[in-house]
Amino acid sequence: MLVGVIEIGVLSRQYYKAVSCKQKISIRIYLNEIIPVIPFATGIAYTALIAVVANQIDKLVMSNILPIHEYGYFTLVVIISTGIVQLSKPIGQAVLPRMTYLLSNEDMQKMLTLYRGTQIVAVFIVPLSGVIAIYSYEILYLWSGEINAAEWGKDILFWFSLSSGILAVNSFQYHLQFAYGKLKLHVIYTSVMAIIQIPLLIYVAYMYGPLQVAVTWFFSGC
């Protein structure tokens, strides 16, 4: 936090020095500028919170029901499968500002061309998630060096990797809604999924175990 405060101070000083601002600087809150964006900002915060809860609830439950060594195997599976989603994020972060800019300038043709160009993510991510699913045993063994870890987690990684591939591809419909500044559909979808998915994951985790949780993740994400 201290580093962040220092950074803000230094950047502010350099900014006003660069623009040669001679007016007295004061801190003011312009409510007329803030109020119009409150629904949009609230939608982002709400869906982000739900996503965090949904993504972590199975891990929280598993930490209570699995022996420590099996929870370590489960964590390894999650790390590998989550890496699939992380690979798609840089493209989304690069494309989203450009899409927003093109929409603000009403350049629909270029925006559609750019959005369709994101199909490269599917071309890369779908085969990758498939390869990880098919060779889940080998990947876990190479990563951990333990046969027990590979045997325990291969089927779980199969379903989690496929789920991550679907999630990575589906994320671009969110980017499109974000660029338009209209998150209503995303908020509704997230709310419905949270009502269904979170209790279901808790129930499946306690009653059936990690493999069935992975299967539930896959079918709830389709």
Automatic annotation (TrEMBL):
InterPro entries from the UniProt entry: Poly_Biosynth_Transport
Keyword Membrane among record annotations: yes
One protein family per Pfam: Polysacc_synt_3
Signal peptide residues on this chain, from the entry's feature table: none
Compartments, record wording: Cell membrane
A GO CC term assigned to this protein in UniProt: plasma membrane
Origin superkingdom: Bacteria
Record field: transmembrane: 34-53, 73-92, 113-136, 156-176, 188-208
Main location: membrane
Topological type in the membrane: Multi-pass membrane protein
Keyword field: Cell membrane, Membrane, Transmembrane, Transmembrane helix
Annotated PANTHER family: PSMA PROTEIN (PTHR30250:SF26), PST FAMILY PREDICTED COLANIC ACID TRANSPORTER (PTHR30250)
Protein name: Oligosaccharide flippase family protein
Source organism (scientific name): Candidatus Reidiella endopervernicosa
